[in-house]
Amino acid sequence: MKKIFLAAVVILILLPSFACGGDIPYYHQESSSAPVIDPVSDPVPAFVVGENGFYDTENDIEYVRIEGIQPKKIGKLYASVSVGTGDGVSEKRFFEIENEHPTYFLCDESGNVFKNTMMPMLSMPGEESFDQQYPGLEPPSE
Q1: Residue 54 near residue 48 (C-beta atoms within 8 A)
Q2: Per-residue DSSP letters for 17-53?
């Protein structure tokens, strides 16, 4: 009796699948009905510009503007960043300083110098060793 009841339950469970074409529905990884997942894009911009500096999110470096120093010679373009202002969007460009490493110092087109916040200043403008330690920088001309 138990065998007949069990067989009847199995037939009742499988009967609808055979009535619909004979296939038991299942999910297959290579099926065309598999959900398509878009690759995740990074919503963080490459640079975040503030009033007195900027943050390079790709290299995880924060730069702040330092007063009393200007570049001797502006080098190649490091980054061009779109900055939203009250008047719309403007382009802010940052340049390498010749004879200085770009992970230490950068400047903008106005000659403002920006320093990596993680790197210490080994000497300050006016000190004897300043010219030797920072050959690409000089105090502003008066």
Answers
A1: yes
A2: HHHTTSPPP---TT-TTSPP-PPPP--S-SEEE-SSE
What values do phi and psi take at 8, rounded to 5?
-65, -40
What Rg, from alpha-carbon coordinates, does the chain have? Answer: 32
The partner residues of 48 in beta bridges, in order of sequence, read 55
Residue 95's contacts (CB-CB under 8 Å, 6 or more residues apart) are 71, 74, 75, 76, 77, 78, 106, 107, 108, 109
What the block records as the tokens of 79 is: 């980054």
Q: What pLDDT shows up at residue 18?
A: 59
Alpha helices, H only, the chain: 2-19, 130-133
Q: What's the pLDDT tens digit per position in 34-67?
A: 566 666 666 778 888 888 999 998 889 999 999 9
Instruction: Provide the CA 78 distance to its chain's centre, in angstroms.
Output: 15
